[in-house]
Amino acid sequence: MTIHSIQKGEIQMSPSTYSRLVRFLQEDLAISAASIAVALRHSKQDPGPLPMILWQYGLITIDQLDQIYDWLETA
Predict the structure, then answer these.
(1) 12 pLDDT above the threshold of 70
(2) Which residue range is the domain that position 54 belongs to?
(3) pLDDT tens digits, residue range 37-57?
(4) How many separate domains does the chain show?
(5) Does any domain span residue 65?
(6) Cβ(57)–Cβ(47) below 8 Å
(7) Residue 57 maps to a domain
(8) Residue 51 bridge partners (DSSP)
(9) Percent of the chain, pLDDT > 70?
(10) Distance between CA atoms of 75 and 61, rounded to whole angstroms?
(11) Coil, helix or strand at residue 10
(12) Is the pLDDT confidence value at 8 over 70?
């Protein structure tokens, strides 16, 4: 993963890594574009890592959250 900076505990990803993450969410975990859009809207009001926001709002399971963080470690 390409890290640009760490602010307030959040890892900033390069645009290409972010695009690959969204593709992983949609293609491998079958997370809908609508769910991702909801999480992105909430992240503007309450900043935080996208995977955590998806989980906090019940848009993914804890197992999916683990899969996302495993994917991020290898990306």
Answers:
(1) no
(2) 13-74
(3) 999 898 888 888 899 999 999
(4) 1
(5) yes
(6) no
(7) yes
(8) none
(9) 84
(10) 21
(11) strand
(12) no
